[in-house]
Amino acid sequence: MKELALLTKALIQERKDIALSIICGFIAGIAGVVLFAASGYLISQTVFAPPLYTLIVLTSLVKILGLLRAASRYGERLYSHRATFSMLGRLRASFFARLVPLMPNLLGKKRSGELLARIVGDVESLQHYFLRVAYPPMIVVMVFLATVLFVSAYSVWVACLLIAGMLATAFVVPGLVLLGQRRVHGKLLEQRAAVSIEVTELLYGFVDLKVYGRLKEREEQLHISSDALVAEQHAAARGLLRGQSLHTFVTYLISWGVLALGAYLTITGSLEGVFIAMLLLASQTLFEEAAPLANLPAYKQDSEYAAKRLAETVHEDSTRPPGKARPRGKVQPRDKAQSPGKAQPPGKALSAEQAASIELCELSFHYEHKDRPVLKNISLSIPPGCKAAIVGPSGSGKTTIFELLLKLRASTGGEIRLNGAPITELDEASIWHAANVVLQRGHFFRGTIRDNLLLDGEQRSDEELMTALEKVLLSHKALDDEVYEKGENLSDGEKQRLALARAMLRKGRRLWLLDEPTSSLDYITEQHVFQQLLTEAADDTLLIICHRLTGLEEMDLIVVLEHGSVIEAGTYAQLMEQKGYFYEMKQIELQMIGDE
Ligand SMILES: Nc1ncnc2c1ncn2[C@@H]1O[C@H](COP(=O)(O)OP(=O)(O)OP(=O)(O)O)[C@@H](O)[C@H]1O
């Protein structure tokens, strides 16, 4: 299976620990068999009152084997778990890295709760692949062959019985477990994702659900999902228990068989009676060592399913040119330059040294499953140091332009050039590094105002932080003031100002991309903050999206967007002179300010 090939590759990177765990596991297994075989022999020998030194040798051997077994079992656990957890850590990081460029598209299709379940739960399920599927059979086979060889030295018939028992343990029991498991296959992971979805929706939408009187209904839904998850967990646990019980049944069946066969062979004179207990205990220990085989296929199936779900999450998007739906039954060729989700060789870096120029050439964008394009052949040239604004009605495609500029999405037509270089050739991280970005809905982390200002990890003095707060008129906030998750305890205007202060602190970025950064502020505060922004970005390129037209007189370029097309562009004076759409908007705004 292709997905498990990835896992196998990750395991190969841990080959040293894997080799050590197999060696330790083999030593522990074989020491266990010899330990119990020696114990059995010791018990039988005592009946014949052997010389003291025989007893001393045997008891010492038993003690040494006991210690060896415990130490090697510890080594096996240590190395196998170390390999597993390093592998899981690497898988989690690589899965997350592949998710990041797909994020805007992915969140449209998968709910955050489901993604959370996949990242946490499905990756966790993969630990079974190594711990219960990949290496235990190797140890069992090695211990089995050594034991059969040892037993055959005393009786070929007993050895044959062990082989028959092992065939039943390795094939019949797992086959039966797998039959029972078919019904619950994958349901546990799906149900876990369903609960995760319900919980996140309930938490995110708590206030709205309460206000609209739907909270009880959603809580009941959560209870139903949770009960279903518990039921699936029971079913899965029952399946595993059934496997273990069947295995124990086979183990005791074989033990009885060895006992009966040993007795018969002793009567017929082909086996000395003193060895019966030894063979019995050796066989019992051997089958105990083989216990992981019972549930191996079930764990394998689970790991495969988890790997498939994880691969689906990243492949669904990365194999499809963004903005185009995949026709059924037909694989679309990848657009090498445009696909943001696939791993690409590192591109050129966008320089943060100089103010950037932005050129949009016949730029188009079409969201997947939308019947009309959101952006249509937009051409625009913003020279270095230019202060430009994009205005236009809601839904006209302004934010989409920003997402394309930040390579969060890839255009479906035309080209974007930053500093003359096609954006497809630029490394996206260098764009994020070179730009000072304030998005419509900035994220705030639980912590303090200081933590949220120092998001980029750079060290700054309290004076610097306070100056930034003063610039956005937030000096009434102390740096140690608490910020709740998602900035729940801040007003919308405070959040916007905190985001702007955060951006102003990032010195040396020569490209400013601001998406409605002051939309929640009152006119007076907005004017002040706007002036501060213009001062901060005096020598830089600034592109701002805004609804209100306050302060746009100072812009070098104003672009009016409607239904994804540029309908007007020019300076404030030019647009007012044209008496077109912008002029109309300004008149309405002036009227509203006057009314207020
Ligand atoms: N993830 C998405 N999937 C599908 N359609 C989307 C998605 N995001 C936005 N759209 C649609 O694209 C169009 C443009 O959206 P965009 O956010 O760029 O507009 P906008 O001009 O920034 O609007 P606003 O001023 O309200 O922020 C809208 O019709 C919107 O419904």
Q: Which secondary structure elements does this structure contain, and how are they paired or packed?
A:
Blueprint: H1 2-12, H2 15-47, H3 52-99, H4 103-109, H5 112-125, H6 127-134, H7 136-152, H8 156-181, H9 187-204, H10 206-211, H11 215-267, H12 276-289, H13 296-318, E1 358-365, E2 375-382, E3 387-391, H14 398-405, E4 413-418, E5 421-422, H15 428-434, E6 435-438, E7 447-448, H16 449-453, H17 462-471, E8 482-483, H18 492-505, E9 511-515, H19 523-536, E10 541-545, E11 557-562, E12 565-570, H20 572-578, H21 581-595
Helix pairs in contact: 2-3, 2-7, 2-12, 3-5, 5-9, 5-13, 6-13, 7-8, 7-12, 8-11, 9-11, 11-12, 17-18, 20-21
This protein binds adenosine-5'-triphosphate.
How would you sum up this structure, described in words?
The longest helix has about 55 residues, at about 215-265. A six-stranded mixed sheet has the order 6-9-10-3-11-12, with helices on both faces. The protein has a four-stranded antiparallel sheet with strand order 2-1-4-5, covered by helices on one side. A two-stranded antiparallel ribbon has the order 7-8. α5 packs antiparallel against α9 (about 185-205), α7 runs antiparallel to α8 (about 155-180) and α17 crosses α18. It is of the alpha/beta class and about 600 residues long. It has helices at about 1-10, 15-45, 50-100, 105-110, 110-125, 125-135, 135-150, 155-180, 185-205, 205-210, 215-265, 275-290, 295-320, 400-405, 430-435, 450-455, 460-470, 490-505, 525-535, 570-580, 580-595; strands spanning about 360-365, 375-380, 385-390, 415-420, 420, 435-440, 445-450, 480-485, 510-515, 540-545, 555-560, 565-570. β11 and β12 (about 565-570) form a beta hairpin. It has two domains: about 1-320, ABC transporter transmembrane region fold (Up-down Bundle), CATH 1.20.1560.10; about 360-440 and about 505-595, P-loop containing nucleotide triphosphate hydrolases (Rossmann fold, 3-Layer(aba) Sandwich). The structure holds adenosine-5'-triphosphate. Adenosine-5'-triphosphate binds next to α14. Its main location: membrane. It is a multi-pass membrane protein. Pfam families: ABC_membrane (PF00664), ABC_tran (PF00005).
